[in-house]
Design goal:
Order of helices and strands: EHEHEHEHEHEHHHE
Helix content: 40-55%
Radius of gyration: 18 Å
Mean pLDDT: 95
CATH architecture of the largest domain: 3-Layer(aba) Sandwich
CATH superfamily of the largest domain: NAD(P)-binding Rossmann-like Domain
Number of domains: 2
Largest sheet: 7 strands, parallel
CATH class of the largest domain: Alpha Beta
Low-confidence stretches: none
Oligomer: single chain
Length: 266
């Protein structure tokens, strides 16, 4: 008889950058499996409260919001401490927050570079550093970093993003080795293109700018790198996350799951 558990009842999770897009979907997925969740991110206060209350009502769990700015280490540490104050533990940390800017290296704004490295990479360090003492006391924890196909391969004009995501992959491996005997795992998920609200808004504009149809934008521009020519879905990413935080993923450590339609197989 299998002893694998996927029930997260009683566990506590933080998902950074979870007021929209991938992060919101991942917070919802964890809650749907019984975890109490701390959501975090920017946005309209009423919209954030609607999301928080909606997750709690749909899944019958406790959901809190913490407004930590991923540029500020003290606020990140307070977010982790908040989880322990509210629930007495922290079982899952998903580092999801991220931003993007596209430009050639010699034209790349230095403030954009600094912000991308800080939010996409350095915040992962600060959140993990704050979470580890709690997880070590518990003798169990799961840290999952949202990397990217760009953590494994590069594309032009995305130097800061690619550098940050490669850094996330290196950090993931290093942390996994440090805590391997303490019941804690650290892994990454590497998505290809996901049809987030931000991407959806770009399709029409790109079609007009290039004089092509929206279908051609999706197939020949956005999904040119993905052999399946299909967007990665939230549910597909949630499946990877739930595996990594469950008992089934207990011996997956310092590794990653690519959910990219075959992009990095080429």
């Amino acid at each position: 008889m299998s002893s694998i558990r996927t029930d997260l009842t009683g566990q506590v999770a933080i998902v950074t950058g979870s007021t929209s897009g991938i992060g919101a979907a991942m917070a919802d997925a964890l809650a749907s499996n019984g975890a109490n969740v701390i959501i975090n991110g920017l946005g309209d206060a009423d919209a954030i409260e609607k999301e928080r209350a909606g997750i709690a009502e749909r899944h019958g769990v406790e959901v809190r919001y913490h407004p930590a700015n991923m540029l500020k280490s003290a606020e990140i540490a307070d977010m982790v401490a908040f989880a322990e104050r509210e629930f007495g533990r922290l079982d899952i940390l998903m580092n999801n927050a991220g931003i993007q800017h596209v430009a050639p290296v010699d034209e790349f704004p230095e403030d954009k570079w600094d912000a991308i490295i800080a939010i996409n990479l350095t915040s992962v360090f600060h959140a993990a550093k704050a979470a580890l003492p709690i997880m070590k006391r518990q003798g169990r924890g799961r840290i999952v970093n949202l990397a990217s196909a760009h953590g494994l391969v590069a594309s032009p004009f995305k130097s800061a993003y690619v550098a940050a995501k490669h850094g996330v992959m290196g950090f993931t491996k290093t942390l996994a080795l440090e805590v391997a005997e303490q019941g804690i795992t650290c892994n990454a998920i590497c998505p290809g293109y996901v049809k987030t609200p931000l991407v959806e808004n770009q399709i029409g504009d790109t079609a007009k700018a290039r004089g092509i149809t929206e279908e051609e934008v999706v197939r020949d521009v956005l999904l040119a790198a993905q052999p399946t020519k299909q967007f990665v879905t939230y549910d597909q990413l949630a499946g990877a996350l739930l595996y990594l935080v469950s008992d089934a993923g207990a011996n997956m450590n310092g590794s990653w799951i690519s959910v990219d339609g075959g992009w990095t197989a080429k």
